[in-house]
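Write out this protein's structure.
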Amino acid sequence: MIEPGQLVLVISPKGKRFMQVMDPAKEIHTHDGRILMTDIAEAGFGGIVRSHLGFPYRVLKPTVYELIKGVKRQTQIMYPKEIGYLLLKLGIQPGCRVIETGTGSGGLTTALATYVGDTGMVYTYERREEFYKNAAKNLERVGLSHRVTQHLADIEETGFQQTDADALFLDVRVPQDVLQHIPPAVRPGAMCGFLLPTCNQVSDLLRGLDEGPFTEIEVLEILVRRYKTVADRLRPEDRMVAHTGFLVFARCMEKPEPFTRPAKVEATDSELLPETENIVEDAPEDTEASE
């Protein structure tokens, strides 16, 4: 039995998907007829529910992947292929406090809010009001609003309101212009991530990182190639989503001073250790047991 407030995903015989929060008083309208939410609740996750015209729909609990792909978009969203690596690289886990800039439609925000849990918090900044409002609706729709604090602000002008955050991610056009706001906002040693679409933008960011308190810098892109799922004709799909952006990571931490080997100082006789290189221990006495 599915409880009220839980998010459900129903899939038509042709693969069309409908995602909605369980509310027994509502129904889902499809091209195959309407489906009562009470029927979905009774069918349960993994069950089959039929529309009033008799079409069978599968009932599933949506994965984080499906939540991200299902956000209503007003902007391009980060793809799950980047998000998975980003979550591990930034160390996102229950209890984390993470800052995100460039909320957009809330795709990454959804993933971050899922993994910080009820004991963590995502602080997300967006400067455009229409994106801010759309992201709020997307988060409310999947029941994650209580894990997110939204800010309608331009960080280039305001900076961040938080301190001692565990991680930070920037998806803005010129991140090198706001790098000075990062150190006061995160704890020493925190991981920071950036997303940029072009090589020249990455070069500009790298110059900025080299001048600031950042170490362990990494640049990469992630490609996914899918295969046709036909056992007798297994081969790659004809098309693929290739480059969607460069990921840049750096640890916010003061660079260590260059190491200088101390000058050699001659030791006095009293400081010399006894020589041990040529000491040979007495060999054990031969036994005569065999005689």
